[in-house]
Structure formats: C-alpha cells, structure tokens
Write a structure and sequence with these properties.
By secondary structure, this protein is mainly alpha-helical. The chain has two domains: 55 residues, no CATH class; 86 residues, no CATH class. Helices cover 52% and strands 10% of the residues. The chain has six helices and five strands; from the N terminus they run βαββββααααα. The strands form two sheets. The protein has a three-stranded antiparallel sheet with strand order 1-3-2, with no helix packed on it. α4 packs parallel to α5 and α4 packs antiparallel against α6. The longest helix is centred in the middle third of the chain and has 24 residues. It is globular, with a radius of gyration of 18 Å.
C-alpha cells in the first residue's frame, strides 16, 4: 500500500462508511481517517466501490495520468505495477526474515519500527546483512513509487 491512512473529505459520510465496514477513526483535531490496508479491499477489488470515500474516488496516480495522456502505454504501466509489486514482496519477505509478520501495517511503518528496534541493539552479522538488504530494498521501492505513482 502506498498510504498509511486515508483522510476523509468534507463530502464523505463517516457513519455510512462505518456501516460499510470501514473503521473510521479520529485523525488530529477535526479530521477522520481509515487505515490501510483498506478493510474494504477484497483481493484486488473494492467491496464498497460505488460508495467509496471521495479521496479514493478522485485519486489518480502519476502512472494512470501518463497512460490517460498517452505518454505511457498500458502495457508499460502494467509492467511498472508488476515491478512495484515484486519490490514490495522483497521488502515484505525481508521484514518477515527479521521477525515482522504484521501484514495489517503498511510497509513504511513496519520498516520504521524495525529501524527503531535495531537502533538500540547490536546486530548479529546475519541480521545486520538482512537489515542492510531491507534498507536497500525499501529505498529501491520508494524510488519507484515516487517516480511512477506519486510525487
């Protein structure tokens, strides 16, 4: 997932979204949000697509905008999506090797939590090597995401 949270917009109906199964919670003083991965995501489909929050409805990544503007072919865009998924899988696998199996939290938060954990302890050589691979994999994934999906 790209985002940790989705902030609800003024026209969103928090009560309706809660009834549809989204755990809407406060975010700061006035905002409401729901965490990612989205509770409405069923495989690759949105269970509440017709009633999805405004942000989800309006969001278009750079990749999609480039396809719509004919600056990129759909096949090239699909290949980029495939590459991003592979890179995310590498990060997920390395986190798992280091003992983090929390799939309910976004990859960036899991990486930050792992980094914080390792700041206070001396790493065995093998663990240090895996953490080094993880750091490079996260950087590689973030580079692709910022270049192809969002700025």
């Amino acid at each position: 997932m790209i985002f940790a949270d989705v902030i609800l917009q003024a026209k969103d109906d928090p009560q309706r979204l809660r009834l549809l199964g989204l755990p809407v919670v406060p975010s700061g003083r006035r905002d409401l949000k729901f965490a990612q991965p989205c509770a409405a995501l069923d495989g690759c489909r949105c269970r509440i697509y017709a009633d999805r929050p405004r942000y989800c409805h309006e969001f278009e990544c750079i990749l999609l905008k480039n396809v719509k503007a004919s600056r990129l072919s759909p096949d090239t865009a699909l290949a980029t999506i495939h590459t991003a998924r592979e890179k995310a899988d590498v990060v997920r696998s390395l986190l798992h090797k280091l003992g983090d199996t929390d799939e309910q939290l976004d990859l960036a938060a899991r990486f930050r939590r792992m980094t914080k954990k390792f700041e206070s302890e001396e790493l065995a050589d093998e663990t240090g090597d895996i953490y080094g691979e993880l750091t490079l994999a996260v950087h590689d994934l973030n580079s692709l995401l910022s270049e192809s999906f969002y700025r």
